[in-house]
Amino acid sequence: MDKVAKYKAAAQRWAAMYKVDEQHAIDVAASVLMTRDKVQMGGSFAQAIVDNNLREAINRADDICIKYLRFFSIINYNCGSYEIEHGQ
What span, in angstroms and rounded, lies between the C-alpha atoms of 62 and 59? Predict the structure, then answer.
């Protein structure tokens, strides 16, 4: 499994735990993780989440991202690189 696929799989696992079923939110969660770990640089919303900048995150969020701000913050701080790499 390539690196990007591992990040997407991790986001999918966390989404299932938090009952997030909107694919856009899952894709953004993967982007947040990849931005955090410098795998791929996401957009300005993902960077605001990584930077823990609530004001910028709110300003840059679309309607779906606003709904899942808590989820993005949780996954950013709690989904570690070991879990991503090993699928735990």
Answer: 9
